[in-house]
Design a protein that fits this description.
alpha+beta, 6 strands, elongated
Length: 400
């Protein structure tokens, strides 16, 4: 497959966050390693893999020759003086090479379809996990920010308390500072609860085993510079579309198999007949002429192909439309994130506000109002970046 021209649209978030785990493998992010664990431990995927192995054995069994038939006849004569007759026969049905080849091809196509179906389930599981991991990084970053906000709020509360004790402040300012701390603590508890839910869902996807990453920063992501070119060259390599294509190929194999079953079937064997004083033995040859057993199978196979082709066209049309929508949505979210990130790029905003408060340049209400503006922009920037990462994950889900 040709390489698609890509450009890095993501930028590092202006706030500096250090990765908690400094032992990441080269080229692999925490998300990559977590997804690898989930793929190995997910019970749904384990079940699918076992079912697929069973299906492969069943498909292979269909390629074996039919079982030989052994017959024994004991016939009593009448009158009794003529004795009895004993017949022994052994016969083996034989498929002509054309039928044998079609059986093997059909088994291979069934295996291919099962594999495509497994890839769909794998994509769904890993995409769900990746969305949770992106959300987890968001909660980690927000908790880090909220704890910093709490520290600043506690400092302001202490300052207001000292002013109150010295007679320079008033009870209203102190109460507002206390309320500010309480609100931030409530935000922390809510975010911690959300994180606990995310970690629980990741454990569910990981076969009941806890899995958590402490990163507060997203890895760089890539978007194609031109959607049409990207989709034409790589966007169609999607498990959903590949599954429908495999169904069409399976349908053609079933049609070829149905046609081959219209050919006569042969059997060869040995037969022995023994009576009183006489014995006959020799080779037997049989021919089965398909007249009714294969009726309408060819028409059914053709109808299945038509249905599979219609489903493929429907999936392809819907997939392209959805991918284009996700692509536009990702670009829009990135633009939003960059706008907010640029607006909050002022360093040490809280330190500057506190200094102004210390010198009496602003009141506590003005301090909290200005801080709220900054916090609101920061929160929106983080949410936009998170949503951007989720949208890109859905756009590139087929690459998981």
């Amino acid at each position: 497959m040709r390489k698609v021209q890509l450009t890095i649209l993501a930028v590092t978030f202006p706030m500096s966050y250090a990765l908690s785990d400094g032992n990441h493998s080269a080229g692999l992010t925490s998300i990559d390693m977590a997804l690898s664990q989930i793929e190995s431990n997910n019970t749904t995927l384990m079940s699918y893999r076992k079912d697929m192995n069973v299906s492969q054995l069943e498909n292979k069994a269909d390629t074996y020759p039919e079982d030989p038939e052994i017959g024994f006849n004991l016939l009593w004569g009448s009158p009794s003086e003529i004795g009895s007759r004993k017949d022994i026969s052994v016969s083996q049905p034989i498929d002509i090479p054309t039928v044998t080849g079609k059986k093997r091809e059909l088994a291979r196509r069934k295996d291919e379809t099962n594999e495509s179906e497994y890839r769909i389930e794998r994509m769904n599981v890993l995409l769900e996990a990746k969305l949770y991991l992106i959300e987890l990084i968001y909660t980690n970053a927000m908790l880090k920010e909220l704890y910093k906000r709490k520290e600043h709020a506690a400092t302001i509360k202490e300052l207001m308390n000292k002013r109150l004790e010295k007679g320079d402040g008033n009870i209203l300012d102190y109460n507002n500072s206390c309320l500010n701390v309480t609100n931030i603590e409530g935000d922390i508890r809510k975010m911690e609860s959300e994180k606990e839910m995310i970690v629980g869902n990741l454990a569910r996807l990981n076969g009941g085993k806890d899995i958590e990453i402490a990163d507060t920063e997203y890895p760089e992501v890539l978007l194609p510079t031109d959607f049409e070119k990207w989709y034409a060259e790589s966007g169609q390599d999607n498990p959903l579309l590949n599954y429908e294509k495999s169904r069409i190929r399976l349908g053609h194999s079933q049609l070829d198999m149905a046609k081959s079953l219209n050919l006569p079937k042969f059997s060869v064997g040995y037969m022995s007949e023994k009576t009183v004083g006489e014995r006959f033995q020799g080779v037997t040859i049989g021919v089965t002429v398909p007249l009714w057993g294969n009726k309408n199978r060819t028409r059914i196979a053709k109808a299945n192909i038509e249905a599979a082709e219609a489903r493929k066209e429907d999936v392809e049309s819907g997939l392209r439309s959805r991918q284009k929508t996700l692509f536009r949505q990702a670009k829009g979210l990135l633009s939003t994130a960059l706008t907010y990130e640029s607006a909050i790029h002022t360093p040490d905003n809280e330190r500057i506000l506190k200094k102004a408060l210390d010198y009496g340049e602003i009141t506590i209400i003005e301090y909290m109002t200005q801080a709220a503006y900054y916090y609101d922009s920061y929160d929106k920037a983080m949410a936009a970046r998170r949503d951007y990462m989720k949208t890109v994950a859905e756009l590139n889900a087929y690459q998981l």
